[in-house]
């Protein structure tokens, strides 16, 4: 009996995401007479895309090396501050959107090579404690350099205002964010399924010892994989700074929902991170509409329901972390 090729399986999953988003847009259209509901649905999709892209970065690092990166949010904040520093000195926003994440990647690779790499063969608790400490240190450094209060970081004038969608108007910057994040998700999927290096990364997740025995330098794989996860965090950090504001703890506000997203989607599943992000974003956004005080509780309630029905998460793989 023939088995589905990995590339075709991911293509089918991407198609399922497109169909699902289309169905959500159809719901928005049907509910367009209720402007609040349609707006919150769109906000939920944008928020879900944020959670998904951050969770993808966490999952990439976690799946290959077993590193639970509690400093992921701090890298997001660093990227936002670097973009703010460049824009405040007259640099173009579009240039900062690309360069700030790349600069963050350089810092991330230095941290990975010097501090995190020695812990790859140890229990995940060691990397968790290390990166948690790094997160606290980074937060204090941001306090010293940029102050405890938030700094003004606005989107460019070309993305100001709203865009008419026929049945509702929506902020242009949020639509831009959704487009960028969706393109990044598609690019990651293509990289992992259509490039030789991406296929090696996926193979290393399954059996890194076999990949090393075949002559692949696994340390390079670890470094590039970590850099890719940090780059995703960096882009999300710049976009989040323009949408949610920028302060020393801004990145960490997205970190816990991202971990919840990983748990709901399932450990070891990148596709699950995408689905989990959309579900968490919609749950949080719609709860804000009717019960604002319970907006944060909603994602934990959703996680409890999913884990009760399927302890490994929606698409989780058995055997990760024990």
Please render the helix and strand layout as text:
Elements: H1 6-30, H2 35-65, H3 72-88, H4 93-116, H5 124-146, E1 162-164, E2 169-171, H6 172-194, H7 196-206, H8 208-213, H9 218-244, H10 250-265, H11 270-290, H12 295-309
Antiparallel strand pairs: 1-2
Helix pairs in contact: 1-2, 1-6, 2-6, 2-9, 2-10, 2-11, 3-4, 3-5, 3-9, 3-10, 4-9, 6-7, 6-9, 7-9, 10-11, 10-12, 11-12
Main traits of this protein?
322 residues, mainly alpha, two-stranded antiparallel ribbon, 74% helix, 2% strand
What does this protein structure show overall?
Helix content is 74%, strand content 2%. With 322 residues, it is mainly alpha-helical. It has a domain at 55-248. A hairpin with a 4-residue loop joins β1 and β2. The model has no long low-confidence stretch (mean pLDDT 83).
Roughly what percent helix? over 70%
Total helices: the number is: 12
Cα Rg: 20 Å
Query: Strand percentage, roughly?
Result: under 5%
Please give the largest β-sheet.
2 strands, antiparallel
Q: First CA to last CA: what distance?
A: 31 Å
Q: Class by helix and strand content?
A: mainly alpha
Q: Brief description of this entry?
A:
This protein is an all-alpha fold and 322 residues long.
